[in-house]
Amino acid sequence: MKLFTPSVKSHHKGQANALDRLHGFSITGNSAAMRQQMLDDVFILRDIALLGQWTTLYASPNTGKTLITLWLIAEALKGLKVDGHYVFYVNADDSFKGTVEKTELAEIWGFHMVTPNLNGFSSSEVPQMMLELAETGDAMGVVIILDTLKKFTDLMHKRESSEFGRISREFISAGGTLICLAHTNKHRASDGKPVYSGTSDISDDCDCVYILDKLDGRMFEDEVAVEFVNAKARGDVAERVSFSYAKKHGQSYAELIDSVKRIDDGKMEELRLSAEVNRQLEEDEDVIVYVRKAINQAVTSKTDIVKLVADETGHSHAKVRKILAERTGAMYSLGHRWSVEIGAHNKSTYSILAATEPAL
Amino acid sequence: MSDNWPLEPNLSIKGLTYRQRYVDYDPLSDECIARGRTHDCLLSISNLIEETRIPSKQHRAILKKLGIANNHASFYWYGKIPVVIVEPYGRQDYEFDGIEFFRLPEALSSYGTCNGHETQSLLCVHAVNKSVLTQIMEKIRMAESNLPDRYFVSKEERNLVEQRYHSAKGGK
């Protein structure tokens, strides 16, 4: 397909005044030609990344972003949704063994693996190549996946990130698709959610952003659940998508990738809830320890427990009372850690709840 | 047989179909009847969709690697994967850089022998998409035993083509 070329005459500086030049740049009247070139809403990563967009996936190391991205690419290729001849996975964050394993998968599924220092490739060439693809009209239909983004631009450097954003936008405007994998900060936000690393330029400039996070929930021992949460969208992408994979000692990369599965919404809701409960249990840990200690020492009335625990932990009475109430109930899996009986004169008597269900 | 045969103007908006190029010039001849039937069989067995833009960017990328084998080229999609079929004269072996191909069996070689000149039909994809060839080959293998004789045209078939031809021309 030929790159769209405006049918109006080009107006160059010095040949016309500013108003004429603005008229010359107008694309009004070219929509029919542009629509012909427009890419259908096709997912390269199902529910997550659309063809013709720039999508960035942020996650902390060892979350499984490369694994799940490759699995999603394979899904698109096996479904014949994308021509692998135009898909380039730039693997700049791997060992030689990892590169070999992933290249073997690329050969089976049918896409191109590109790695620095092999076949004369260098990561620094990528922005220039994207620019050339845009300028020559060859960007249309090309999918580039950069793993990881920090190998291609300095994410901490505003000017560099901004320049990378400009080049990427030219590539996208010419019909290319860009998927970047990037890291989140070591430290999370106050609400416990991961925060992307670097300046805001990349997330400001790209079309779609997902933040990936591992969910500690009710999975099998060797299973890991990862949730993709959308932070920015330009198109009909999913708000949340979740996957699981099984990590076993001694397994090959092909076996690991074979274990990737989508998690349905019901299961995900359960996992999300249990992850939240786990997070709160962790936050309340010292109070929980001292309340259990108090109950074990036969201090079972509400007033006595609150007083004792507040003295031991240094927390306010109000905070201890709140945690005492939140952890009261009969459902261990929902974070309840003790139960209460109301006796004569409205007297509360607490007793420790046995862990009858698997701990969250 | 395609329901669009012999003349469906909508199919030639961007270019000519295989039928329009290689069958409709002499639609009542045995050679062209057999060719049209073979091409229809190939499409229905392989699930290839014909591309009539001549050629699209993706197909052009394959075609330019086929060198001297580029003869009677036709263009298809298998899902989103571009597929090119070339049908050069002769039975020589080819090798193309960055391209994987397989030679279609005689029963599905659309162009076939023309005025005594033998051709071969090569189904080509980018090397990275070679798994597609395996899928198509498997479909052909499953159907091969039920295919009609490539060069046999029955009287009934001739009559049917004749009727369709005259009704398309507006006759009885």
Largest sheet of chain B: 5 strands, antiparallel
Note the beta-strand portion of chain B. 5-15%
| Poorly predicted segments of chain A | 1-11
| DSSP helix fraction of chain A | 25-40%
As a percent range, the share of helical residues of chain B equals 25-40%
| Structural class designation of chain A | alpha/beta
Shape of chain B: globular
End-to-end separation of chain A in angstroms reads 54 Å
Following the backbone from N to C, one meets helices and strands of chain A in this order, namely HHEEEHEHEHEHEHEEEHEHHHHEE
Q: What would the principal axes of the Cα set say about the shape of chain A?
A: elongated
Spatial arrangement of strands, main beta sheet of chain B? 1-2-3-5-4
Low-confidence stretches of chain B: 1-13
Number of helices of chain B: 5
Order of strands across the main sheet of chain A? 5-4-6-7-3-8-9-10-11
* Mean pLDDT across all amino acids of chain A: 87
Listing every helix as H and every strand as E from the N terminus to the C terminus, the arrangement of chain B reads HHEHEEEEHH
Approximate strand percentage of chain A: 15-25%
Assembly context of the chains: heterodimer
**Radius of gyration of chain B from the CA trace?**
16 Å
Strand tally of chain B is 5
Describe the structure.
The complex is a heterodimer of chains A (360) and B (172). Helix content of chain A is 38%, strand content 19%. Chain A contains twelve helices and 13 strands. Chain A has helices at 18-25, 31-37, 65-78, 96-109, 125-136, 158-173, 201-205, 253-258, 265-283, 285-296, 302-313, 317-326; strands at residues 43-45, 49-50, 54-59, 87-91, 112-114, 143-147, 177-183, 208-215, 223-232, 240-246, 261-262, 338-342, 348-352. In chain A, strands 5-4-6-7-3-8-9-10-11 form a nine-stranded mixed beta sheet. In chain A, strands 1-2 form a two-stranded antiparallel ribbon. In chain A, strand 9 (223-232) and strand 10 (240-246) form a beta hairpin. The longest helix of chain A has 19 residues, at 265-283. The radius of gyration of chain A is 27 Å and the shape is elongated. The two termini of chain A are 54 Å apart. By secondary structure, chain B is of the alpha+beta class. Helix content of chain B is 33%, strand content 14%. Chain B contains five helices and five strands; from the N terminus they run H-H-E-H-E-E-E-E-H-H. Chain B has helices at 18-22, 30-46, 57-63, 130-143, 155-168; strands at residues 49-51, 74-78, 81-86, 99-103, 122-126. A five-stranded antiparallel beta sheet of chain B has the order 1-2-3-5-4, with helices on both faces. The longest helix of chain B is centred in the first third of the chain and has 17 residues, at 30-46. The radius of gyration of chain B is 16 Å and the shape is globular. The model of chain B is unreliable at 1-13 (pLDDT under 50). Chains A and B meet through loops of A and helix 3 and helix 4 of B.
